[in-house]
Task: inverse folding
């Protein structure tokens, strides 16, 4: 029997009448995407888009990297497990061996690995629960501009009031303090924290944990200085506070090293990883736990899908990049190219640019201008997202594996879009700020 497809009204071409109003990215990028390869996305009409969005950080190695895809297809063809709860499986064992050999041991990390429900927010929930159990304390310190997820516990340590409001109640137990860098300038956060714990009348008992992103992505691409991170590690150690680094966005190479905290030379107590840990965009999340804090009872934090075997397979293959000299050389070169782009944008257009490694935030200071830049980039075949308190920052997020020519092409599209919006941008005559992309 022949089947026909009912034509859709124009407004339904990039949405489906059955899908909830909660959808977000499809409103910004009005296309129906069909496939991806390397640094490119393709819509159902065959149009090519250079991808500087990378699944919001879940596709650091690009779309369908061939070595990972081959390993995955071999696993499936051999009837390899797809689901394993927390059973020991061949795929899990191989991943843990590779993680130890390639990442943990070379960095002197003796952390244990907990597999959480396969979302970043579940790893954050596990970290907060474990910190409270291990210390016997309740409170948490988090930072202005931080984003840690949208489940109840994660929302409690997320600073965005609009996102927090979606919970429908007021989460408690978190003290928010200024990040060392932010829209209102620098702040001596360490002195504030020292005073808070030293003063018995501060109203805040010693917390169980301090949680932070070393690079705040959603907050506007603000980076914690290495000296601040070293001071924070010293502060938490002296006061028996668990230091949690949320490396869900900035980890897995985004800042130029596997972990974002390596530059500062610190060792956190707990580290959350998700997004690009599977290397293939498959759901996976884990929590790295300092051995003395691994006080869970069996099954105390569980989840039906904490054993995503397909993700283990691709994650193991992805870790191979970190012993590949060609990959490491390309990563360093690409970071240098992005830093030079940042300096040019500041010098020629007067816009601050912040970032590290392969993430840069172009701060337009104007949400409407940022929207127009994003829209023009999309029209010119580049997918790039916005972030910041009011979506005023263009977040440049190319694949780590992108080649030199495609990186230059994408940055040229952004530069042209910035130039095209200058004539009508409010305050475009203002004084620029120095770029800071390490």
Result:
């Amino acid at each position: 029997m022949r089947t026909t497809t009912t034509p859709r009204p124009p407004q339904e071409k990039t949405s489906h009448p059955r899908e909830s109003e909660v959808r977000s990215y499809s409103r910004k990028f009005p296309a129906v995407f069909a496939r991806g390869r390397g640094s490119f996305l393709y819509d159902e009409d065959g149009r090519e888009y250079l991808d500087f969005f990378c699944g919001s950080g879940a596709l650091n190695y690009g779309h369908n990297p061939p070595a990972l895809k081959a390993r995955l297809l071999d696993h499936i063809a051999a009837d390899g497990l797809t689901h394993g709860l927390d059973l020991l499986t061949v795929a899990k064992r191989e991943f843990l061996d590779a993680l130890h050999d390639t990442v943990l041991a070379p960095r002197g990390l003796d952390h244990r690995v907990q597999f959480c429900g396969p979302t970043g927010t579940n790893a954050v929930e596990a970290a907060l629960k474990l910190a409270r159990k291990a210390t016997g304390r309740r409170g948490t310190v988090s930072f202005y501009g931080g984003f840690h997820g949208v489940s109840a516990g994660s929302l409690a340590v997320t600073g965005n009031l609009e996102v927090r409001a979606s919970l429908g109640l007021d989460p408690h137990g978190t003290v928010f303090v200024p990040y060392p860098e932010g829209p209102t300038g620098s702040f001596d956060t360490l002195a504030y924290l020292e005073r808070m714990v030293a003063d018995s009348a501060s109203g805040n008992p010693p917390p169980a944990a301090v949680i932070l992103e070393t690079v705040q992505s959603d907050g506007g691409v603000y980076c914690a200085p290495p000296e601040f991170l070293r001071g924070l590690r010293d502060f938490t150690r002296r006061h028996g506070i668990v230091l949690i680094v949320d490396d869900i966005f900035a980890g897995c190479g985004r800042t130029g090293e596997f972990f974002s905290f390596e530059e500062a030379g610190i060792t956190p107590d707990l580290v959350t990883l998700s997004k690009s840990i599977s290397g293939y965009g498959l759901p996976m999340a884990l929590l790295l736990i300092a051995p003395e804090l691994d006080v869970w009872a069996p099954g105390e934090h569980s989840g039906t899908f904490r054993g995503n075997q397909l993700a283990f397979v691709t994650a193991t293959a992805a870790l191979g990049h970190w012993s590949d000299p060609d990959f490491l050389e390309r990563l360093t070169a690409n970071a240098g190219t992005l830093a030079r782009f940042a300096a040019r944008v500041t010098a020629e257009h007067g816009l601050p640019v912040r970032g590290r490694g392969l993430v840069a935030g172009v701060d337009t200071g104007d949400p409407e201008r940022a929207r127009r830049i994003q829209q023009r980039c999309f029209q010119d075949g580049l997918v790039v997202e916005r972030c910041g308190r009011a979506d005023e920052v263009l977040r440049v997020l190319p694949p780590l594996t992108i080649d030199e020519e495609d990186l230059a092409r994408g940055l040229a599209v952004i530069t042209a879009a910035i130039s095209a919006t200058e004539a009508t941008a409010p305050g475009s005559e203002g004084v620029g700020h120095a770029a800071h992309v390490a």
User: Anything to note?
Assistant: The longest helix spans residues 325-349.
